[in-house]
Amino acid sequence: MKRQYTSQQGVALVAAIFLIVVLGLAVVVMSVLATRNTQQNTQSLLQMRAIAAASAALEHGAQNIVETGTCTSGTGITLTALPGFSVNLTCSQSAHNRPSQRITLFRLTASAEYGSPNNADYVWTELTSTIEL
Fold first, then answer.
1. Range(s) of the domain holding residue 69
2. Where, by residue number, does the polypeptide cross the bilayer (predicted)?
3. Residue-level pLDDT, tens digit, the chain, 133 residues
4. Three-state SS sequence of 35-78
């Protein structure tokens, strides 16, 4: 007895290979998206920490102005709560005469930096504040 072959033999194998390839591509895409999401979360966290470091430097400078009435700048401020951040504070002052009083304006600028510009985790921020005495 002779068997007759139909054209549908091997269709299941082709369908299985297609399904494996599609599922493999889906896994690769999910892996890439998860990695990018992790990098974005890390960058956001470091940016928030940089803002906190610059804010702490501004508060330190403002407290110094209120206590002493003088303007001091500092480079390489160390914040033990935020290791790895380089914080700089600059201060300038200018006197202005109003008809009824003399005022002094203090301009504080704080910058915070983490990492190096060639690093994927690099963040930098700058905050400015003006104080009138």
1. 11-132
2. 12-34
3. 566 666 656 778 888 899 999 999 999 988 888 877 888 888 999 999 999 999 999 999 999 999 988 888 877 788 888 888 999 999 999 998 888 888 999 999 999 999 999 988 899 999 999 999 8
4. HHHHHHHHHHHHHHHHHHHHHHHHHHHHHHHHHHCCCCCEEEEC
Angle at the Cα of 131 from the Cα atoms of 89 and 52, rounded to 5 degrees: 45
Angstrom distance (rounded) from CA 45 to CA 48? 5
As given in the structure block, the two tokens for residue 129 are 């504040």
The 10 Å Cβ neighbour count of residue 22 is 10
Residue 6 three-state SS: coil
* Distance, CA of 14 to chain centre: 48
Residue 5 within a domain: no
Kindly state the tokens that stand for 13: 């194998």
Identify whether 4 is part of a domain.
Answer: no
pTM of the entire predicted model: 0.72
